[in-house]
Amino acid sequence: MCSAVMVGELQSRLDADTVLNGISITAIDPGAMGGTGLVRRGNWFTRTILFPVIFRYLGPLLTWYSANGTIRTISKSSTDVVNAALQTDPKLRGSYLNGSELQPMVLEAVDSRKRAMVWRDSVRYTKLSKEETALTELS
Fold first, then answer.
1. Which long-range contacts does 21-27 make (Cβ < 8 Å, 24+ apart)?
2. CA spacing 20 to 30 A to 79: which of 32, 40, 87, 89?
């Protein structure tokens, strides 16, 4: 949810900035992938059975059955990320992709008050200063 809220808010701030308004932001959910090493600190079952064995064999089948399903291959997800990064389609500005599918934003993610609150609190929690960003407006 935070990614969905932040992608829209950051895009609106970039669009309002006279120097940075040519930058496009797109968030992407790559799905769950086996073989990445992301679960190296997970519990024993997840680390030794679920990801290296079950996801290894089930991933390609599930990706074939539902390309943007919960479980995807590394190849599918990496292709989706590269394709999203190279897109110039204006409809992707400030959008959220589920794999290769454009995902409609939930109401909370388009609520300007909630987006501003998440932005403001993120700037405060990270102690982001004007010297650390090219954005002209942080608040």
1. 24/88, 24/90, 24/92, 24/93, 24/94, 25/93, 25/94, 26/84, 26/85, 26/87, 26/92, 26/93, 26/94, 26/95, 26/96, 26/97, 27/3, 27/95, 27/96, 27/97
2. 40
pLDDT at 107: 86
- Residues with Cβ within 8 Å of 45's Cβ and at least 6 positions away in sequence, in order, are none
2-38 residue pLDDT tens = 888 889 999 999 999 989 999 999 999 888 776 667 7
Residues 6+ away with beta carbon under 8 Å from 104 = none
Q: What whole-number distance in Å separates Cα of residue 46 and Cα of residue 88? A: 38
